[in-house]
Amino acid sequence: MKAMIVSQYGENAQFEVRDVAKPQPGLGQVLIRIAASSVNTVDTMIRKMGKDLPLSPDTPAILGMDFAGTIEAVGANVEGFVVGEEVYGCAGGLADLPGALAEYIAADSKLIAHKPANLSMKEAAALPLVGITAYEGLMRAHITAGQKVLVHGGAGGVGHVAVQLAKHFGAVVYATGGGEKQMDLIESLGAKAINYKTESVEAYVGKHTDGAGFDLIFDSVGGANLINSFQAAALNGQIATTVSLCELDLTLAHFKGLSLHVVFMLLPMLHNHKREQHGEILKAIAQIVEAGKLKPVLDVHSYTLEAAGEAYARLESGQTMGKVVIEN
């Protein structure tokens, strides 16, 4: 099969087209002909940082985690999937799991689900990593109907899904963005947009919560921004974040009695730990999508498999709105 290979990591790491052996489905795996894949920030980090990240595969490597495609063969001990079905998932591109920048992937059947019927392959490929991340974070933070929920980075890959899922779960949703286009997207998704560049945390907490703070905050920006989340949270509030690779003063979190949930959705893949939970989440997300409550936003540009390097550069440019997708 044709695959895009990274032979060495680094700032100038290049993808090259190679013919490699087509995988065969092993125990518990299905062979999927990939129709589309999407690029996530963690993919670009692996390409640049290589073994500085403990989750990067050995080179030569096939990167890419998210995909949608059609099952072509089913391995032993697989239940619930048959040849010809359309599926989506996040199942490779790290550690010892070959990725999705190829014509085929042999994927653990626990990590996939049937593709939402009302999405194209491109749209479905955009959802797995960000969908699982947003869903897990909201669940762990105990989202309930009627809560005031703040999503930091509401126009981003994870954030725009978190906004829609929070709405689906019955919350009153607010989200931060940094410009007119981001604000417009947030509003179109049914949330109240907050321009973090022009409005202080104190100002928007006062304006939208009468100073009481938000019940739940999903912080897809994280890092230093977690201090803003601590400031914006209500007493005994819940915070879920996808980025906590930082040093923080937790004094404010202590005095407000906050709960912090760190979401690192790659754990099941890395450690073969409760992988079936990802399949279950993807199944739940498909039902939400088919009910018309969630739709991924795609960047205006799409790319062929051979142009994977351009797709990665597009995401790294910071100019994207929505997920960058590669079509086979």
Automatic annotation (TrEMBL):
InterPro entries, A to Z: ADH-like_N, ER, GroES-like_sf, NAD(P)-bd_dom_sf, Quin_OxRdtase/zeta-crystal_CS, Zinc-ADH_QOR/CCCR
Subcellular location per UniProt equals: Cytoplasm
* Swiss-Prot/TrEMBL keywords: Cytoplasm, NADP, RNA-binding
Q: Chief subcellular site?
A: cytoplasm
Domain Enoyl reductase (ER): from-to ranges: 10-326
GO MF terms, alphabetically ordered? oxidoreductase activity; RNA binding; zinc ion binding
Q: Where is the signal peptide?
A: none
Descriptive protein name: Quinone oxidoreductase
Which CDD domains is this protein grouped with? Answer: MDR6 (cd08272)
Q: Which GO terms describe its cellular component?
A: cytoplasm
Q: Which organism is it from?
A: Pontibacter oryzae
The record describes its quaternary structure and partners as: Homotetramer.
